[in-house]
Amino acid sequence: MNRPLSRRNLILISSIGFVIGVLLGSGLVFSILFIMKVLPHGGL
Amino acid sequence: MIKWLKRRSHWSFVLIAALIGGLVVGAFPGYKLYEYAWKNPRFCLNCHVHDYAVHGWSESIHGKKTTCHDCHQQRLRDYIRELGMMFYSSPQFPKDLHHTPYVKPELCSACHLSEGASAQPLTGPMSQEDLDLIPKVDLSFLHKVHLNKTTDLTLLNEHQQRIQPEGPEALKEVLDYGRTKAKERPIGCADCHGGPTNRGHNFSAVDLSCARCHPMARHSPVALQSGCRLCHFGDFMIPATAIEAMRKKQSNLPKED
Question: Are A8 and B9 in contact, with CB atoms under 8 Å apart?
Answer without folding.
Answer: no
